[in-house]
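Quick one: structure tokens for this chain, please?
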Amino acid sequence: MAVGMALAAVLVLSSCSKQKANTSSAKLLGLVSITVNDPNNQAVIAGAQAEAQVKGWQVSVVDANGSADQANAAIENFVQRKAIAIIDLVFPTTSLRAGLAAAKQAKIPVGTWGGGLGDGVVVTDGDGGPFAEPIVEKMVKDMGGKGAVLALTYHTGQVAREREQILDKYLANYPAIKVQKEEVHIPGYLQDGAQYATAWLASHPAGKEKLAIWGSWDDPTLGAISALKQAHRTDVLTYGENGDPAAIAAVKDNSMTATEWEDGQAEGKALVDSLSDAMTAGASWEPKTINVPGILVDSSTIDQFLKDHPNAIGTTAQSN
């Protein structure tokens, strides 16, 4: 509760900042999120907001609703509002050329959470490909190297692309694992996950082979789990990534096989600190990738994980 109240207070500050940021004395940090409805996006936003408050910065958050066009427009708007720094959440830099060009021309540093480095980007968070390896390794081991996988992908997000590449790399060594890929959308990832799983289950009856569902992040898998419950199927292994509160709860009740928890608040804080350092360093700054290690959470580790991170379950932030 204390964490939730603290996050709520920070988010109230953020909503007020939209009015204050228009004054010449305000130091505005602009955040462009691929979706503010995703708990991990919320966690990164909350971490960035809290650290920005410490530095005396105002914060404005824009929900781009999965649209790169909206994200570019939001970045260009932050440039017009003379933001001191901008953070992109998830959109790949290759999709943000117009916005990044405007920011670079205005000499506004940009950080990305999972968007990768690019022209004008001074820092990014490395939660893409390498982050996916423990989950994919576990899935292959749990399946015994054979069976069928439903992979729920998302190509608009750089993080999801990189995680899918890791999936492809590992499964290339296991030809006995058959993969069916389906693309989910933002918004709509929960519904897509459920619909794809329902159709896939119809052609994959229980008892014939090892079955698994993998999502490039937790929510599509959680949607698929709802379909598994409706079909009364307990034979399918399920894997997600990010360790959202709902995913941690699903591991706890044994409806999700495993996820990898990502400390989004720590990542948001680290991005703000790096942007501040980049502004101080000026031309001497070298673009960098920061890494906040993840934690694999499954039935064998969930109890200890919750002792170590009691706020990882049921503390979802609300975004402005």
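The two ends are 19 Å apart (CA to CA).
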